[in-house]
Automatic annotation (TrEMBL):
UniProt-listed InterPro entries: Rossmann-like_a/b/a_fold, Universal_stress_UspA, UspA
UniProt cross-references to Pfam families, sorted A to Z: Usp
A GO-annotated cellular component: cytoplasm
Organismal lineage: Bacteria, Pseudomonadati, Pseudomonadota, Gammaproteobacteria, Moraxellales
CDD domains in the record: USP-like
Residue ranges annotated for the UspA domain, each copy included: 3-146
PANTHER family: STRESS RESPONSE PROTEIN NHAX, UNIVERSAL STRESS PROTEIN HP_0031
Compartments (UniProt record): Cytoplasm
Protein name in UniProt: Universal stress protein
Keywords carried by this UniProt record: Cytoplasm
Main location: cytoplasm
Similarity field: Belongs to the universal stress protein A family.
Length: 147
């Protein structure tokens, strides 16, 4: 098996960075390209009439994008410095798992490497599990990194 394109979805959690480290090791072994992506959360207020006039919400969305871009730039600099080919992508306005799977299709990913927060019980019920959803829906191999 060869992995030419490895997709790594990240957020700002330590488990995401652990997934990046695993992807780097695999990329070095196979000479792969790593595509690191962030999905900016779907804004639940997007359809609310006052959305366009709520500066605090607009500011929050802009800050989220700035933070995601900074995180991706840092990861790209690190991986490039370690000799790994890297591309970064930011996806907006879709549910996280959908964004991940869409990008996997677009880039013809051979492998998805992602962290799992390992939520259980009520937290899992309320917050869900993106990793579990991607694992269940993906037609590609998915490597789940746990804490």
């Amino acid at each position: 098996m060869s992995y030419k394109n490895i997709l790594v979805p990240v957020d700002d959690s330590p488990i995401s960075y652990a997934a990046v480290e695993h992807a780097e090791k695999i990329a070095k072994a196979f000479g792969s390209k790593v595509i690191v992506m962030c999905v900016l959360s779907v804004d639940p207020l997007m359809s609310v009439d006052f959305y366009k006039v709520a500066p605090a919400i607009t500011q929050h969305v802009l800050e989220a994008e700035t933070n995601a871009k900074g995180r991706l730039d840092d990861i790209k600099q690190t991986l490039t410095g370690h000799g790994v080919a890297v591309e970064t992508i930011i996806i907006r306005s879709v549910p996280t798992a959908t964004g991940i799977l869409n990008v996997a299709d677009e880039i013809h990913a051979d492998l998805i490497v992602m962290g799992s927060h390992g939520r259980k019980g009520l937290k899992k019920l309320v917050l869900g599990s993106v990793a579990q959803e991607v694992l269940g829906l993906s037609q590609r191999p998915v490597l789940i990194i746990k804490q």
